[in-house]
Specification:
With 188 residues, the protein is α/β, with parallel strands linked by helices. The protein has helices at residues 3-15, 36-39, 42-59, 73-87, 134-145, 163-169, 180-186, and strands spanning 16-22, 28-33, 65-69, 96-100, 113-114, 122-130, 149-158, 174-179.
Length: 188
């Protein structure tokens, strides 16, 4: 089974549920995808990191760093950074990972972005699940404000509910590893 098929299977069997749910966007849905059940598992991390690196390479994205809004983006960013170190990233240095807080700290340095992010970094914004695109837009605004140059948005799952189009309308290129229809087709 190739990496993409393996990821679809993991998401369908671990992360997807039917029922009545209120999503982070406030929308109601009969499908819930808790990608963290896959993105925080050892085999999920081992699959997502190399697959995401390959998708970025195909897109021509050579980021210095990857990151997005905590908590969903965090394990995905770390998986990509780790995979880049193991693979010997296309650039001379491995890809660094960072986290964008939902709100700036009220103590210490008051940072909104944590980790080895640097102004001028070429960045791919990471998202676990795109629904409306709101989380990726919030992360992108913080990254730009801190001096980052955004290459695009990479998401593990696109719920295929208009979020991709919102991001693209905001001038952000979008790459997704799996579409919701692929997950639904594999649900048991």
């Amino acid at each position: 089974m190739d990496s993409h098929a393996k990821l679809v299977e993991m998401l369908a069997t671990r992360s997807a549920s039917r029922g009545t749910f209120t999503l982070a966007s406030g929308r109601q849905s009969d499908l819930y995808i808790d990608a963290r059940l896959t993105t925080m598992s050892p085999d999920g991390l081992a699959t997502i990191g190399p697959l995401a690196l390959e998708r970025m390479r195909v897109r021509g994205w050579t980021p210095d760093a990857v990151g997005g809004l905590t908590l969903g983006a965090d394990p995905v960013s770390y998986a990509i950074a780790h995979a880049s170190a193991l693979a010997g990233a296309p650039a001379s240095a491995p890809v660094r990972a960072f986290t964008v807080r939902k709100e700036a700290k009220t103590h210490g340095t008051g940072k909104l972005i944590e980790g080895p992010f640097q102004p001028g970094d070429r960045v791919v914004v990471i998202e676990d699940v795109i629904t409306t695109g709101g989380s990726a837009l919030k992360a992108a605004a913080a990254i730009r404000e801190a001096g980052g140059v955004i290459l695009g948005v990479l998401a593990v799952v696109d719920r295929e509910e208009g979020g991709r189009e919102v991001l693209e309308a905001a001038g952000l290129a979008v790459e997704t590893l799996v579409g919701a229809a692929e997950i639904v087709a594999r649900m048991r």
